[in-house]
C-alpha cells in the first residue's frame, strides 16, 4: 500500500512540473518530528497539506496553526 501511495505522489509531482508549476510551489516530503517541526517553524512555508494518522494530524494542526499557516489534514 505505501509503495502505491508513493508512486501516486511522484505522479502528481511529475504532472505539476509538466503543467508548469514553479519549482518550490509543491514539495512532497516524508519525515519524522524533526521534518514536521522544521516545516511548521519555517516562516517561508505558508500552507501545509498532510495525509496520515489522526495523532500526527492533530500535532501538525496544533503546531502549524500556532504559526498561522493554512492547513489541510486528510486522515
Molecular structure report:
- Helix 3 (54-66) links the parallel strand 1 and strand 2.
- The two termini are 16 Å apart.
- The longest helix is centred in the N-terminal third of the chain and has 17 residues, at 2-18.
- By secondary structure, this protein is an alpha+beta fold.
- The chain is 52% helix and 13% strand.
- It holds the Pfam family Aldedh.
- InterPro entries: Ald_DH/histidinol_DH, Ald_DH_N, Aldehyde_DH_dom, MeMal-semiAld_DH.
- One of its GO terms (biological process) is L-valine catabolic process.
- It comes from Rubroshorea leprosula.
- One of its GO terms (cellular component) is mitochondrion.
Q: What is the radius of gyration?
A: 13 Å
Number of separate strands: 2
* Sheet having the most strands: 2 strands, parallel
Helix/strand structural class: alpha+beta
Which H/E pattern describes the elements?
Answer: HHEHE
Whole-Å distance between the termini? 16 Å
State the helical fraction: 40-55%
Low-confidence runs of at least 5 consecutive residues? none
Overall geometric form: globular
- Average of pLDDT: 87
Compute the number of helices.
3
Strand fraction: 5-15%
Please give the order of strands in the largest beta sheet.
1-2
Keywords:
single chain, Ald_DH_N, MeMal-semiAld_DH, methylmalonate-semialdehyde dehydrogenase (acylating, NAD) activity, Aldehyde dehydrogenase domain-containing protein, Aldehyde_DH_dom, 75 residues, alpha+beta, two-stranded parallel sheet
